[in-house]
Task: structure prediction
Amino acid sequence: MKIILTRQCMLLASPVALMVCRLQAADLNLLGTNMPPLDFHGFVSQGFLATTKYNYLGNDTKDGSFQFTEAGLNVSMNPLPRTRIEAQGFLYDVGESGKYQPFLDYASIEYTFNDYLGLRGGRIRRPQGIYNDIQDVDLARTYVLLPQGIYDARSRDFSVSLDGGEVFGNLPLSNAGALSYEAYAGYINVGTDSGVADRINNSLPVGKVTSFDPMLIAGSQLWWNTPVDGLRFGTAFGYGFNFDYNLNLPTGYPPPDPSSVSLHASSHITLQQYSAEYLWENWTFQAEYYNIQNNQHTTSPAGTTPSFVVNYAWYAAAAYRFNKWLEVGGYYTEYYADQPMTFGSDTSQKDAALSFRFDPKPWWVIKLEGHYIRGTALLDDNADNPVRNDNGWFMLMLKTTVSF
Amino acid sequence: MRLFWLKIGLMVSYLVAGTLSALALDGAMLIVNPGVVTDSLSAKELKDIYTAKTKYWDDGQAIIIVVIPDKTDAALEQASGMDGNQFKTFWERLAFSGRGSEPERAGDTAALVAFVASTKGAIALVPADAALAGVKQIKIK
Result:
């Protein structure tokens, strides 16, 4: 606990140092050269969450947990006409995921031929729906916690970035508005210390993941920006060609039988997401539907076992901004784990959230949020929640973000 | 049923017509750095700039948007189709996903004009009574 608090103190102090850097970097001409100026931005978020009945997004949230931290620092520059370089370092800690380990979130170079066509390559953020590429940027939304059936905070290292490239652009449609597009392909690299590894490990009675192969993924995000100001509709598609990983499971058998057995899981993943967003006067309305299909074959010494799992989620949200410093919003979301539109306490999760966002300063955000949740499908199925027999439970969240 | 669809059609026509009406910037004027190669912009071109659809001037120079909070909010909403908070959130989403740079913020009108005058590719809405020096005023076609 002492170590964590010390790290959090360092995180909260870092924006002050970063703001000083910004003053020096605003018009930075390095070493007296005519190098284009560097543009720095950054943020630090610290949250607190407490739950009743179950531990969620962490292993001690029933007692209240501060293990809800995100921090990012990015820099960009335009070294040549129509050319931009950008990079961001990031760290986070959400329950057992992240663990404050800094990593390169994105680092890419882009060239924009014109409004219709551009190319971006390197480590890029993967577009999917309204929030996927900004799901850890607290200041860019009303809510503390996004609908977790779609934007699971524990899986961000699997879902947010990829190493590859994309084409992007904006196509005018005359009086019908405009179509913006992004099409990407590349590899997602995760390790055995990633959030997705924790999710898999938690789903196993015994054993754990020992390695992942890089996953090749391709997909697209289309937005139709209608002629009505603030109204847009989107559709996203993605296909993961090979989500492959190895498992080691102890057998519990005495010698001469093997003490453990190795398994190999290989999946093809298909995801789809449909989005609608309308900014109307002081209102923001949003709705999204998502499904992900996992066609998996697990190979063990006993043979190969196929499985096919489909997860569904949707939400509808509305937020109203009263003035510059207060916004109130809420959403309702449902998630189904391979049981389409049927309710079971451990195969679905329904969440009604009410959020208050305060902006006391342009660089400072405070949020207070309450959730009433039915179902437990998104809980980790491990020792943190050995009994899951009560549908209704509550969660309270408090979060603050400073940025520059 | 036909009456229902007629009402829907009229509502959509009204909304679309509203977006195509001529742009007037309430209490503000548009300025750019003198090195910017254009002398006028259409309402659509201006909106494309303020909504990140256009990120470069014709000569390839990066467009740098500069804002002055509270003093040109009405004009900013007319230019971008978003109020001040929506505009801020929109650009934060781009900046923290590696897809754009947040607009620069100026503390007062004089600082804003000075920043635009000294920054290549800069564009800003300034109060209509601002004293201009070293910048170029842009007409809205």
Q: What stands out?
A: The first strand of chain B starts at residue 28 and ends at 32. The mean pLDDT of chain B is 85. Residues 24-140 of chain B form a domain with the D-Maltodextrin-Binding Protein; domain 2 fold (CATH 3.40.190.10).
